[in-house]
Automatic annotation (TrEMBL):
Organism whose genome encodes this protein: Rhizophora mucronata
Name used for this protein in its record: Peptide N-acetyl-beta-D-glucosaminyl asparaginase amidase A N-terminal domain-containing protein
Top-level division of the source organism's lineage: Eukaryota
Entry-linked InterPro entries: PNGase_A, PNGaseA_N
Domain Peptide N-acetyl-beta-D-glucosaminyl asparaginase amidase A N-terminal stretches: 2-107
């Protein structure tokens, strides 16, 4: 399939075995879909790429055997340009002469990937689905005692794509559900646990209309959503946080002889974060390179039903 299809994943391997994966949020840079959409509001993550965590503590016992080990990164279905970088976080135990550990369980099921397509000429549909789960458990013994760590990941992916009008029409709806969690416990205490539930959304509509005289009217609409909820149990300092970041844009370009001669683009973004102690809210809109609405709230209080309400600390409304 040209372009290797819609699905991508970053796979993390230790000595040839899969220990974790990342199904990344779809970042659209400032030239993507329609350049008029992303000035001055750029696509989510385009100037600050999201980072992700992989827990390899259950494998620590094997890594401390004095031998050389290899951590590798690969991208499923990638093209020839994918930049990957990572940091390895290590904590040293100054009160122990030797740290030992053992991997108890590891289950990494193969990627389940399906693609169904139906085409006549350049027109047709694609439906791509994927699923993966990874889990591991191991203990480490140090000056802190014997600590057992569990790490788990579960992924679901769905992408539907319609191509029509000889390739001029494109409609995409994509959803990524990416959940992971880690827990650890000492033999004499209850487990501390942390869980992250992520939902990444992409919706795209793009169409070209022939206006004659070598002129096209290019219309595009795009929606991006980055949502994440985090949960910690009481032994981990009980708390929850909720991040919702939704962005939508609409653009029209007049293209004559393959050159853009005029156009208009508008973008709206709503960002909302709440961790029970701190709230932040921003609703901002732009059109034709100009901010036309900007509302910020960063103080919240709980209603009688326990939900957060936002008090606006700053509001800027700029008329067209």
């Amino acid at each position: 399939m040209p372009g290797n299809g819609a699905f991508r994943e970053v796979v993390v391997s230790l000595d040839g075995g899969v220990v974790g994966a990342i199904w990344p949020f779809t970042v659209i840079y400032t030239g993507g879909v329609n350049p008029l959409l992303w000035r001055p509001i750029t696509g989510i993550g385009s100037f600050n790429l999201p980072s992700y965590d992989i827990e390899i503590t259950p494998f620590l016992g094997g890594l401390l055997d004095g031998e050389t080990h290899k951590i590798e990164f690969s991208v499923t279905n990638s093209l020839n340009v994918w930049y990957i970088d990572a940091n390895l976080h290590l904590w040293l135990d100054n009160n122990s002469t030797k740290t030992v550990g053992k991997l108890l369980k590891h289950d990494s099921k193969p990627l389940a990937l399906s693609l169904n397509s139906k085409f006549e000429g350049l027109n047709g549909t694609f439906l791509t689905r994927a699923y993966r789960s990874i889990s591991s458990e191991g203990w480490v013994k140090s000056s802190h005692g014997k600590v057992t760590t569990r790490f788990g990941q579960e992924f679901n992916y769905s992408n539907s794509m319609e191509i029509g009008k000889g390739g001029n029409l494109q409609v995409v709806n994509q959803t990524i559900n990416f959940n992971d969690g880690v827990s650890f416990r000492k033999s004499s205490s209850d487990a501390c646990s942390f869980k992250s539930v992520k939902n990444f959304r992409l919706a795209l509509f793009s169409d070209n209309f022939n206006q004659g005289n070598d002129t096209l009217l290019s219309v595009s609409n795009v929606t991006l959503g980055f949502n994440e909820k985090k949960y910690k149990n009481e032994n981990f300092g009980f708390g929850t946080s909720d991040l919702q970041n939704l962005q939508s844009g609409q653009g029209v370009m007049v293209v004559r002889n393959n050159l853009v001669v005029s156009g208009v683009g508008s973008t709206q973004q709503v960002y909302q974060y709440d961790n029970n102690k701190f709230c932040f809210f921003r609703n901002i809109s732009s059109s034709n390179y100009t901010i036309i609405h900007d509302k910020v709230a960063n103080t919240c209080h709980k209603s009688e039903h326990g939900s957060s309400r936002y008090w606006a600390q700053q509001m800027v409304v700029i008329p067209k």
